[in-house]
Amino acid sequence: MGKFVIRRAAQAIMVVIAATMLLFLGLFVLGDPFASTGDKVVPPATQAILREKFGMDQSVPMQYLTYLGNLFTGDLGIDLNQRRPVADMLGVALPNSARLALIAIIIDIVIGVAAGIIAAVWRYSVWDVLVTILTTLAIGLPTFVIGVWLRQTVSGFWIFPQVPRTFTELAPWYTEVLLPAFTLAIVDAAFIARLMRGSMLEVLRADYIRTARAKGLGERTVIMKHAFRNSIIPVVTYIGISIGVLLGGAIITETIFQYNGIGFLLYRSILQQNQPVIMAIVTYAVLAYVALSMIVDILYAYLDPRIRLS
Amino acid sequence: MRKKAWLRTAAGLTAAALVLTACSQKENTGTSENEGASTPSAGWPETAVPELKEGKKGGTFQLAITEPTAIDPYNAQESEGILVATQLFVGLTTVTYDGKTEPGVADDWETNDDCTEWTFNLKTGTKFHNGEEVNSESFKRGWERVAAKDSASEVAYHLDGIEGFDEMQAGTATALSGVDASDPAKLVVKLTDPNCEFYIRTSHTVFSPMPSTAGSPATNTAFVDQPIGNGPFMMDGPWQHDVGIKLKRFDDYTVQDPAYLDTVEITIAPNGSQDEYAGFQNGTFDWARMPTPVLQQARSTYEPQGQWITRNTNGMNYLLTMVTQKPLDSAKARKAISLAIDRDSIINGVFKGSQTPSTSLIPPVFTEAYQEGVCGDCHYDLDEAKKLAKEAGLTEGTELTFQFNVDAGHEEWCAAVKDQLETNLGLTVNMNGVQFTDLLNNEQQPGASGIYRAAWGADYPTPGNFLEPLLSTGAIGAEDNEPVTGDNRGRYSNKKFDDLLADALKEKDDAKRITLYQQAEKIAIGDDQALIPLWNRTQHRLANTKDFINVRMDFHEDPDLRVISTK
Asked: Do the strands B244-249 and B399-405 form a parallel or antiparallel pair, or are they unpaired?
């Protein structure tokens, strides 16, 4: 097990270095953020001062090394537009996004797993058909369609705050987070329901389930203790990967609901060519993705001994 | 087999569509020619500006903007940042809503004979929001804070021409040697070159005074996010980034009449006009811009209710022409292009009337300098266009580069221009949509040819701020084989034009200076067609006139918050 973890961690570090290097080249070498403001050319003297201010007057390899060094110390620099510490901007947005992702995942799992189990256990029943129809619908509808529709129809009613509203009209955080979380969760919940149903059905046909039943165990014990643990493996993998997808979906969802999270910050930064912010967010996304897939792999290895031996 | 039948049908349909469009194009040009004779201009008329009425203290005005770069004058630059900075600060002079320069903190000003030394006499006893007195030292402090190299201000170049500015930008000086504040009631400014309209320039927010707590360089984030100014409104708490900015009335404001409104709540709505429009519809905001596609519908709803504002503002949309490169290296060729564009039909067709065609470079908002029709060839005249094209060697199949920036709503009208040039003059137009930064970069390169989409707005209310940066030889800032470093990317250069601009800056009399600018515009636009004006910058706003009076658009296209009052 220890060997497996070390091997997996070494791979992860290589991926991080390669990804940041590519990102850095793509962002800092291709675009010049100081050439113009609107329709106006920035005077060359001003451009030179700005380059010096943001450390872009150095050679590219030097800039990359400085960047990597700063990354280790947690210094993300200042943004090109408002000159605020990037760490502060992330500090505001990150908890919001984490809250959104967490609630979305909870909704995902609760709805998805429950629907999947019900559909599998009562196969071909009305419930099963209903789950199939609803999941098909949910998977077919893109996130932005669901998001825009919810914003148009539900925002402003009951506890859901109006979008847009004035900033002085305060809304408790949970009212703000519910609609975007639901929007984010709905497609994933459908996928999880299908995955859960499929893998549950497969497991229910396995020999050891028949053995368990033959031993005289109750149906509830058979399903919840024996079938559940084995059929949840693909769902765990999927949730691990879907956190990355959640961040991607969060760009759209957070933008629709103007939810002040990482995805929305990234969207605005891309529009502004605000490279230090884009760089910081994407680097952290890469780190998070790599770390999560590592954890999933290790979890996998723990759940299934065959994996760690090969 | 079935597939092939499908293909045949599709091909047939495409051919039919082509024939139909060809017909409709011909028909189009025919009708617009007739229309051109009867209705000289297209577009919605400007709405009346309300007479100012006596207001009463109180009320909250709500509006939304996108997150500004800065609200501190040292780096406030786009419309949103200027909106806030203008409420917080007032400089030596101010701009009225219709583009005239009025006294601000300076009561009056005088200059020496060659306009290289300016003396501003300041009002005494005016105060910053913290109670500190505003004197000449406050201005010197503010300007030096902007010019300091470590402030790295993106708008510092407006101070260019003040003695000692270059040294401060280079980091070799810590004070502006040309600014003398020894007398608290007098600010004396020395310039490196004559500029008889320097006082107009000082209306820009970058020339704001600063209290002693501001600190220099401008890296004190606590102040930058909650500036202490001397304007009609003050910050009510710091700027909540990506959330909002709250302003409250400054009761000791004595530079002009104080404001009526108690508070102004500026919500930061990231999707810009889309959010503003939605917010106006649901009653959240009292002022809104709109996305272009909804303009027509919004106008039909709100115009009858008197909640609609249309104004031609400080700006111009035009085609940049590369005047040193074939095929547009002659005035005749450029005039042929201009005459072959049917502005009215594009405005009615693509813009649904929300723009007005232009016949000058200096827009109508500059009422004294505006010369309607100074561009004698800014109308549609097919015969003349063909004649000039022939003389200029623009023959059937001549290739013309046409670049524009994508994702900014320019696709449709650019396609219409391409279509008209191809149909009317037989040119082969190589239209190319690129990213905005690439567009500017391509325009700057030596050897760039053809036409480019362009727009311009002046930083200060003087016609010179159109003519000098866009067309003077000095604003090329490069040899023929180097990329342009200024804003004259068409590389137009005319000695007579340059001389007139130089004379204008040396002319102390305002009226005479305007005449010189007009003569210069006549040469560059009327005679040489150095640029091809298309349509004015026409702006539309929704304004809550049900609950508020005196709602008008200021020179920066923002609501004139100081005069607005509840009913």
From this structure: unpaired
Cα→Cα distances B132→A198, B104, B252, Å: 74, 17, 11
Give CA–CA dist B84/B73, Å, rounded: 9
Q: Which two tokens stand for residue B481?
A: 């084989």
Q: Which residue has 């509840």 as its token pair?
A: B566
Kindly give the interhelix angle for B464-471 and B495-506, rounded to the nearest 10 degrees: 140
Q: What is the Cα–Cα distance from B184 to B138, expressed in whole angstroms?
A: 9
pLDDT single digits (tens) B317-355: 999 999 998 889 999 999 999 999 999 999 998 888 899
> What are the backbone dihedrals phi and psi of residue B414, each rounded to the nearest 5 degrees, phi first?
-65, -40
Q: Mean pLDDT, to the nearest integer, of B229-246?
A: 93
The stretches of B171-248 forming alpha helices (DSSP H) are 198-201, 221-225
Place of tokens 């200042």: A78
Tell me whether residues B285 and A40 touch, CB distance under 8 A: no
Of A52, A82, A166, which is closest to B284 when you measure between CB atoms?
A: A166
B533-559 tens-digit pLDDT: 999 999 999 999 999 999 999 998 999
Q: What percentage of chain A carries pLDDT values higher than 70?
A: 93
Lowest mean pLDDT among A161-170, A224-233, B138-147: A161-170
Q: What percent of chain B has pLDDT over 70?
A: 93
Chain B CB contacts of A81 under 8 Å are: 69
Kind of pairing between the strands at B117-122 and B106-111: antiparallel
The residues pairing with B549 across neighbouring beta strands, listed in sequence order, are: B565
Mutate to test the interface with A, among B437, B439, B482, B544 (most CBs of A within 10 A): B437
Rg (CA), chain A: 24
The count of C-alpha atoms lying within 13 angstroms of the C-alpha of A154, restricted to the half-sphere facing its C-beta, is 16
Q: Are A292 and A243 in contact (CB under 8 A)?
A: yes
Asked if residues A108 and A246 have their Cβ atoms less than 8 Å apart, the reply is no
- Residue A199, amino acid: S
Residue listed under structure tokens 């007057």: A57
Residues of B in contact with A46 (CB under 8 A): 153-154, 156-157
User: What six digits make up the tokens of B70?
Assistant: 């800065």
**Which of A30, A34, A49, A84 should we substitute to test contact with B (largest number of B Cβ atoms within 10 Å)?**
A49
Contact B91, B204 (CB under 8 A): yes
Residues 65-84 of A with CB under 8 A from B: 81-84
d(Cα B249, Cα B562) in Å, to the nearest integer?
A: 9
- Cα gap B196→B400, rounded to integer Å: 41
A168 to chain B: which residues are within 8 Å by CB?
A: 244, 246, 265, 267
Please give the Cα distance from B19 to B173 (Å, whole number): 70
Give me the interface pTM, i.e. the ipTM.
0.75
What sign results for the dihedral spanned by CA atoms B540, B45, B406, B294?
positive
User: What's the mean pLDDT in B167-180?
Assistant: 93
- Residue B92: CB atoms within 10 Å: 27
Q: Who contacts A100 (Cβ-Cβ below 8 Å, separation ≥6)? A: A177, A180, A181, A184, A250, A253, A254, A259, A261
Our measurement of the distance from residue B441's CA atom to the centroid of its chain's CA atoms, rounded to an integer in Å, reads 20
Q: Does A168 touch chain B (CB under 8 A)?
A: yes
**pLDDT tens profile A235-263:** 888 887 777 667 666 788 888 887 888 88
- pTM of this prediction? 0.82
Distance CA B385, CA A40 (A): 31
Cβ-contact B168, A45 below 8 angstroms: no
**Angle made by CA atoms B215, B153, B94, in degrees to the nearest 5:** 85
A84 burial type by CB count under 10 A (0-12 exposed, 13-18 middle, 19+ buried): middle
